[in-house]
């Protein structure tokens, strides 16, 4: 499944090319390459000649763009910040799941 310009829902099933990721995120391709090198963004098949990314990477790349603009972070700092944001998201999801298992008070 490829992203169409009018689509706004992004998830792991969506796939975008490296060029589409640059266009959708607003980050230059050189910055995206650095984020891949730092491990902040991961292509579906890293050894492939043409990188393809999940829709989740579009969300992360857009966050990287906002962080770079707001705080003037270099690629290493962006990578670290994206890692922290992903960890926070995972912890919040785990917390919601655990809360859902608690008995409800009437």
Taking the sheet with the most strands, its summary is:
2 strands, antiparallel
Helix content: 55-70%
Task: Summarize the helix and strand pattern as letters.
Answer: EHHEHH
- Please tally the helical runs, counting DSSP H or I stretches of 4 or more residues: 4
Structural class from helices and strands?
A: mainly alpha
Unreliable stretches (pLDDT < 50, length at least 5) are 1-7
- Tell me what portion of residues adopts beta-strand conformation: 5-15%
Overall radius of gyration: 16 Å
Query: Which outline best applies?
Result: globular
What does this molecule look like?
- This protein is mainly α and 106 residues long.
- The chain is 58% helix and 6% strand.
- It has helices at 18-25, 29-38, 55-71, 75-101; strands at 15-17, 52-54.
- It has a two-stranded antiparallel ribbon.
